[in-house]
Amino acid sequence: MTRRIVLDDSEIHCVQRAKHLASMTRAEHLAWAKQRAIEYANAGDLQNAFNSMASDLNKHPELIASARVCNQLGIMLLMSGNLNTKVEMVKWIEGFD
Fold first, then answer.
1. CA 17, CA 3: separation in Å to the nearest integer?
2. Which of 6, 28, 33, 95 is the most exposed place for a label (fewest CB within 10 A)?
3. Residue 62: DSSP 8-state
4. Which residues lie below 8 Å from residue 64, measured CB to CB, with a gap of 6+?
């Protein structure tokens, strides 16, 4: 007996997004991650700017090392007050290569 799986709209969206992300080159994925994080920073949401960058870097196999730097160094910068403004956060995000 074959069992059929039915996905709702949000699950379909997640699958489509995962396929799209998997097809991106390293450079495309990094540009996408930066764009999303900078949008949060420009809106004044610095915490989500940081979280977005950290999360999105982890979604591409060639950016895992950058994600570790983002998490380890970024948390220290946040805790020491060095990412407390839009300008500081955007500069930090744009520094990833």
1. 25
2. 6
3. G
4. 57, 58
Mean pLDDT by 10 residues, the chain (97 residues): 69 55 86 97 96 92 86 91 95 93
pLDDT number for residue 10? 66
pLDDT of residue 4: 75
Best CA proximity match to 32, nearest among 13, 59, 11, 69: 59
Domain assignments of the chain as residue spans, ordered by start: 26-94
Does the predicted model carry a pTM greater than 0.90? Answer: no
What is the separation, in whole angstroms, between the first and last Cα of the chain?
A: 50
Question: How many Å apart are CA 51 and CA 37, to the nearest integer?
Answer: 8
Give the closest residue to 36 by CA, choosing from 51, 25, 52.
Answer: 52
CB 63 within 8 A of CB 30: yes
3-class SS shares of the chain: helix, strand, coil, % to 5: 75, 0, 25
